[in-house]
Structure formats: structure tokens, C-alpha cells
């Protein structure tokens, strides 16, 4: 079978790499993909964008593709899964209606409230004055979120009323997130440790993947502005057996059952961003796709063939397919362009990946690279995901940073504390 992976980041490279390990797969095609995907033995990249629905359809026909896996949220929110499956193609990813769990925070919050899924209390506003009044009445800390998709940048955790009001004005009056921020959701501030639980779903059955934890702030010790994610590790010790059971019973299963009951069965990956609070796990956000960079640490630990799992999610029958993980921890360190998440330069030559990958357990996923002549150069904010497995978490961390230190490009930066929170928790456990 040929498998098409839509997207061009580190998540898609990790997916294509894992899919290519399946004996049932003869070719993995990235649209548009990246040089990492192109360099896989079974890899090929075609310059078609995921938002070009007709172009994707034509590619599926031309290459005789048996399964399409949609990486990013934007084509899902626009209905690419509906468009392809209505045309008879096998697609991994939820329909447009179900993708609103990520595409509209107001939709997700109302859904959770209707079905008693634990999450922060909230209110939705279309008027900046009313939102401001709510802040003045409820005080800070309070969380301000743009309703629509804002590339992970639409959230302000405001520690003062002034900060909250400024964020409301920027989104609703200043229009910094465009239409996505004309409506805002104000949320109760939750405290605790965050973790990501991704789960395979076929509309009925839910199979959680190994737990993981992202590192969103740009700098060590969770300082600096929020990013798309600066690193991750799996498993996340904060998700012990009891928390994992509660996430399944109180969040994932009710979510999938209630989506089905409402006539929008959920098929694909359901990503629950959770906060482990004093009263148990509560939802911070739902995403309707694989996490980035969580995927890069979860898939290297998966020992089962992923292709039958993806097919079962698309077609049904997930309960009958094995989904297993090895015990070895995995860590990914994001190497970013100088300046990211603010303005940064592109086109810097990257060296040392081959040497880094000769180290045991190391795999480098491409997140923002391109080929310029024969040279590999930077082409995005997050450039590489340097990933390592190890017998223990300290070993995985040491290997990942050993690999990072061999890779060079001008003004590269990374966090130096990926995994430290887990070490602290393991040490005190
Ligand atoms: P989101 O895009 O909704 O995941 O929010 C981005 C980040 O903001 C999360 O990873 C949390 O660190 C933080 N955050 C979001 N909602 C809340 C909340 N209700 N309470 C505390 N922190 C939050
Ligand atoms: N790692 C956060 C996300 O994928 O949204």
C-alpha cells in the first residue's frame, strides 16, 4: 500500500518514519513533506499543500494511494477528511464537524459542560466591554483565549486584571488573531502539572497512547514566551496508573461516546491536553490531531505496526488491533532558529545530523528544513527535533543532548532542561 501524509513538520516526519517501518507499506508520500521524509528509503515528497483539496485528490488518484493521514489541524477544520472520504478514499482524521473540538474553543467548552467532562469553568464573549466587565467582576488570575485557531498563540494566562483586559482588547479590537479572536473565551485559572494524552479513536473504541509532556515556553524553567513546543518526553510520570485510568474514564471515553451520540463520531487522534489538579485531571484543551512534538516521543516507543491501527481508526475495528509500547523512555529536544518564537532568519546551513544519528538510540526529525542546492538549510522557527530513546530517562536525556551538541547552524537555540521536571518527580517519588 502507498500512504500519503499531509503536512511538513517534525510530527509528519515522525509519522512517515513509523509508517515506513510497516511491511505492508511500499511508499510513504509527503504532501508537501520535508527533506527528512524525502530521505526515508520508502519516502517521496510532492509539492502539494494540504489546503489544496483538489490537488490532494488528484495526487491520491495519480499515485493510487491507499490511506491518507492528515497531520495539521487547518485542513481538518476546513473539511479535508469529509471531502476525501465522500469521494471513497480511506482517511485518518476527523470530519469537519468533529474537528470543532479544536477549531472552536467555545464549541469544545460547551460540549464539555453538556457532558460533565472536567475542565475549567468559562464564559464566551462577542463584546470586548462585556468581557472586560467579567474580568473586573471575577478578578485575576484568569485565562483569555481566542475562540478560533491561532497557531497556538491565542492564549494569555493573565496574572493581573490589566493583562487580561489588554489581551481582550488586542484580540477583539486590535484583531491580532484576525477572525479567530473576534470572539473570546475567558477561563478559570487552573493550577497543576500538564500532560498530553493522545488516543486512537475509531468512532467507538478509544485506545490511549503512551503519555507525554510538552515544554511550551521558549526558555529553561518554563520562562519566556509560549512556542509551538520546545521539547517533549514520554512517559510523563505525572500520569500514574490512577491518573491514566481517570483520564480514560472521565475524559476520553465520555468524549468519544458523546460525540457519537451527537451524530459526529470521532475518528482519528483525540489529543487531550490535561492539567493534573488537586481534584484530578481536567481538560486544558482538545486537539484533533497528533501533537507536535509529542508524536516524536510517543511513536518511537510504539512497538506495534502503526498502519493497521490507522486503518482501523478510519474504517472501524480498532478494538481488535494490537497497540503496544516498549518500556524505554524517549526525549525530543527542539533546535530552533535564533529569535523564535519572534522574528528569525532562514537559510542557515545545517551540519552534523549524520554524526548525531550514529549515536545509539538517536533519530533526528526535520521540522523546518529545506534543501538549497545540495545543502540542508533552516526553513522555519522550529528546525529539528533531536530525539533519543534510552534504558532510563537520564540516559535518553544525555543521548539527546549529546546529539544536539553535534548539530550546528548559525544562531541555533534549544532548551537545556527538557525532561528535568520528570527527573524531579521520579526522584521524589
Ligand atoms: P491551550 O492553547 O489552550 O493549550 O493553552 C496554552 C497554554 O496555556 C496551556 O498549555 C496552559 O499552560 C495554559 N492554559 C490554558 N488554559 C489554562 C487554564 N484554564 N488554566 C491555567 N493555564 C491554562
Ligand atoms: N504540542 C502542542 C500541540 O501539538 O498542540
Structural notes for this entry:
The chain has 429 residues and is α+β, with helices and mostly antiparallel strands. The chain has helices spanning 10-20, 35-38, 53-63, 73-78, 80-86, 96-103, 105-114, 128-138, 161-172, 241-261, 294-298, 306-315, 353-357, 393-404, 420-428, and strands at residues 2-7, 27-32, 43-45, 67-70, 91-92, 122-125, 142-146, 155-158, 184-188, 193-202, 206-208, 213-214, 217-219, 223-226, 231-234, 267-277, 280-287, 330-336, 362-366, 369-372, 375-378, 382-389. The strands form 6 sheets. It has a 5-stranded parallel sheet with strand order 3-2-1-4-5, sandwiched between helices. Helix 1 links the parallel strand 1 (2-7) and strand 2. Helix 6 packs across helix 7. The longest helix is centred in the middle third of the chain and has 21 residues, at 241-261. The protein is globular. The mean pLDDT is 95. Bound molecules: adenosine monophosphate (AMP) and glycine (GLY). Glycine is lined by residues 152, 214, 229, 287, 291-292, 294.
